[in-house]
Amino acid sequence: MRQRTAIVIGGGIGGLTAAVALDRRGWSVTVLERTAGPAPAAASGLRAQPARPARSGAGIALAPNAQRALDTLGLGDAVRAMAAWQGAGELRLPGGRRLARTDNAAAVRRFGGPVVVAHRAELLALLAGRLPDGALRTGAAAELVDPGEPGPGGRPARVRIAAVDEELTADLVVGADGIHSAVRRAVFPGHPEPRYAGFTAWRFVVPAPDQPCTAHETWGPGGLWGTVPLPDGRIYAYATAAVPPGGRAADDERAELLRRFGTWHRPVPDLIAAADPAAVLRNDVRTAAAPPPAFHRGRVALLGDAVHPMTPNLGQGGCQAIEDAVVLAQQAAPDADLAAALTEFTRQRLPRTMDVVRRAERIGRLTTWRSRPACALRAALMAVTARLTPDLALRALDGIADWRPEGPTYAAGTRGTRTAAQPREHE
Q1: pLDDT tens per residue across span 63-106
Q2: Which of 106, 105, 89, 92 is CA-nearest to residue 389?
Q3: With contact defined as beta carbons under 8 Å apart, do 227 and 208 qualify?
Q4: Among 147, 128, 152, 146, which Cα is nearest to 138's?
């Protein structure tokens, strides 16, 4: 039987997870990533050196649902090993008052596993390192030419891609090219673009301050601040504010953060002061404007932000992309009817992810409240609920973080079931 071929457009978390998962199912996979620069391991023509993440960038929270999805690829334990934060987390007010507290022991009780936080660059390097040599091509912009819909007599055509100076064909194309997905626009040209969610986000990574730094999220008028320790001793910090879209600071984004959050409780101002202005990321937050018609068309599948962008308030953007990738590969067995497999992929993923989109957006709207009476009411309700119902913050993940993929996993101990058929490794 001829080996089936897949092209993944986009080398982010969802795209690389899909590539690893399809490779392990026996597909011949090529990943086309438009950005150039230092390439992670397995990049075409390069032996990359991904050991240290960039100074700039961001962390990513991986809830138990994403870890279990990665367990099916034999990567869950590696992700758990790279995550340092296993302790308590707090919900606070700008003056420092604590409203609620939870810890990962509660997450284990509720969802069967902890929430772990890793540097995004390290996760990307881990995924890329499991691909065959040459499978990942950087600096390779791609354009969908033909989605491979049924031709004469109902026989499906191969998908055609224009990439750099060549045209490529494949049995399957995975559109994992992010929130401004060109693949999505090509397959669903009339579908509404993601809309502004009402707030902007800032992210950066800095060395840990001298004083102990507990993971916390602080809610204030019109915005929030978050602080999470990373495995290597650094701190991942993020913030959001209800501002008009498209804005930029007149001086620099660190100065903007000082104006907005510099009077909040410590260590918030210390972390801002330690940030390199050039390394502070600022992005408008966007969310899906409407459910898509499907997650596929012809022989093209969409996943992650390309098809269900969501606000970061549940920490599920990357997690849902990982779920998408694993489910897609599970359905697309080498000998499966690909049309039926993609239909089943849509059936499983569309309702679940759009529910997560709506739930995240509801929480996001709460963070944009500005008036003092509204914020006081919000704080009072949070405090009372936390006293009456422990693990308040975790309740928002009910029905999400407890998801489990089909089939065997390859995780150690009680986290999964080790089978005799170990996943294929590439040296």
Answers
A1: 999 999 999 999 999 999 876 555 678 999 999 999 988 888 88
A2: 106
A3: no
A4: 128
124 close to 65: Cβ distance less than 8 angstroms: no
Backbone Cα Rg of the chain: 22
Which residue intervals of 369-412 are DSSP H helices? 372-388, 392-395
Domain segments of the chain as ranges: 5-88+120-194+288-366
Question: Quick one: the chain helix, strand, coil %, rounded to 5?
Answer: 35, 25, 40
Q: What is the pTM of this model?
A: 0.90
Percent of the chain with pLDDT over 90: 68
- The kind and range of the H/E element at 302 are strand 300-302
Contact in structure between 229 and 59 (CB atoms under 8 Å): no
Tell me which architecture the domain covering 5-88+120-194+288-366 has in CATH.
3-Layer(bba) Sandwich (3.50)
Closest CA to 59 of 159, 176, 204, 175: 204
Retrieve residue 411's tokens.
């995780």
Return d(Cα 361, Cα 199) in angstroms, integer. Answer: 11
Beta-sheet pairing, 88-92 with 98-103: antiparallel
The count of residues in the chain is 427
